[in-house]
Specification:
single chain, alpha+beta, 3-stranded antiparallel beta sheet, 1 helix, globular
Length: 70
């Protein structure tokens, strides 16, 4: 895809990562555009192109924050 600039509140992202099970080795992060949120789901594969689990144990949604890029 094309390059994009996107920002997230690091506190919210860290909260999500802390809520994930400690034994979780793989997470799938999905972005569609710089204006839409990111979904975070548990993964079953270390392959970055693999689809997330059909029935994920968890799904988080993180909204981006507006960045002032000049």
């Amino acid at each position: 895809g094309e390059d994009m600039d996107i920002g997230f509140n690091c506190r919210y992202l860290l909260d999500i990562l802390r809520a994930c099970p400690a034994e979780m080795e793989t997470l799938h992060l999905r972005l569609n555009s710089e204006y839409m949120g990111m979904t975070i789901q548990n993964g079953t594969s270390k392959d970055p192109d693999a689809a997330p689990s059909e029935e994920p144990e968890f799904t988080f949604f993180l909204m981006p924050v507006k960045m002032d890029i000049r």
